[in-house]
Write a structure and sequence with these properties.
Blueprint: H1 3-7, H2 12-42, H3 47-68, H4 76-100, H5 107-123, H6 125-148, H7 161-173
Helix pairs in contact: 2-3, 3-4, 3-5, 4-5, 5-6, 5-7, 6-7
């Protein structure tokens, strides 16, 4: 769903919903840029940036859902449940990955996954799936390139947060 698609209904509620969605995306972009730089430099995603993003992004998304009755024509309760379930499912999936990877995936990545799940599931379950596929595709291709170039070994650690953010942004702009 695009901003234009939300506002195309012609109602003032749709216009406000579109503005709230834009606000959520701008706040996400600001936080994502900060997290990207810090994770590349320090291999960590600080709580002082990550935790405030939940209400900063989640509340405008939630308000947008209630004003527009959901981007897929769902009623507001269904759309809210879909968005919250997406955040929980993605965070739980990344928690399982962390537990199974002997700490190779950081706890910051798990916390970031919940936020990204909210954002992706706001649009649709298909965006949630596509986002995760793109996250692992971009991270995997980058890692493979490092291995082939001899700049990394199988035990090397890379910052995964930037690939989580990149995959999410790619999925958000993809018109599913």
């Amino acid at each position: 769903m695009t901003l234009g698609g939300l506002a195309a209904g012609g109602s003032w509620l749709a216009g406000w919903a579109a503005l709230l969605l834009l606000l959520a995306l701008l706040l996400f972009a600001r936080g994502a840029a900060q997290l990207w730089v810090i994770d590349l430099r320090e291999h960590r995603l600080p709580n002082r940036i990550l935790f405030p993003l939940y209400p900063q992004v989640g509340l405008p998304l939630l308000a947008s859902l209630w004003l527009s009755a959901g981007p897929l024509g769902l009623d507001a309760w269904q759309a809210t449940s879909q968005m919250l379930a997406g955040g929980l499912v993605m965070a739980f999936f990344y928690l399982l990955l962390r537990l199974g990877s002997a700490g190779a995936l950081g706890l910051g990545d798990v916390k970031l996954a919940g936020l990204l799940g909210l954002l992706l599931a706001y649009l649709s379950p298909l965006h949630l799936l596509l986002g995760n596929l793109l996250i692992f595709l971009t991270g995997g291709l980058y890692s493979l390139g490092l291995l082939l170039a001899g700049r990394a070994r199988l035990k090397s650690h890379i910052a995964f947060g930037p690939f989580m953010l990149l995959g999410t942004v790619l999925a958000l702009i993809y018109p599913v």
